[in-house]
Amino acid sequence: MSDLNDPRVFFAAARTLLAWNRTGLTLMAFGFMIERFGLFVHMMFPQQFGPSHQALSFWIGLAFLGLGAFALLAAIVQYRKVLKTLKPVEIPEGYRVNVGVIINLGVALLGIALMVYLLFSAAL
Q: Quick count: other Cβ atoms within 10 Å of Cβ 119?
């Protein structure tokens, strides 16, 4: 339990949540880039880079997408734990504390949806 009675503690937790949001988004963007770059290299140099190279970049890209989604979900859990330790005086009156959680959850679900799409499109 926090004994500071200062709303800056809550705002620090919110900034940390948003920093993890940026980290998760970056990991997912990097994963998508790796996945598509393997396809690009295979199209440009089909005789030098066979399907095994494309498959490797596909799975590494999906791993980064999954890692980004996991980072977003883990950030939500950590943020909720911090919120439980705060006193009502540390949260500004009328302030909605779950906006960042909703954004992180939405981005994580979209990342998971992208992973599912890539998996099913690769199977076709």
A: 11
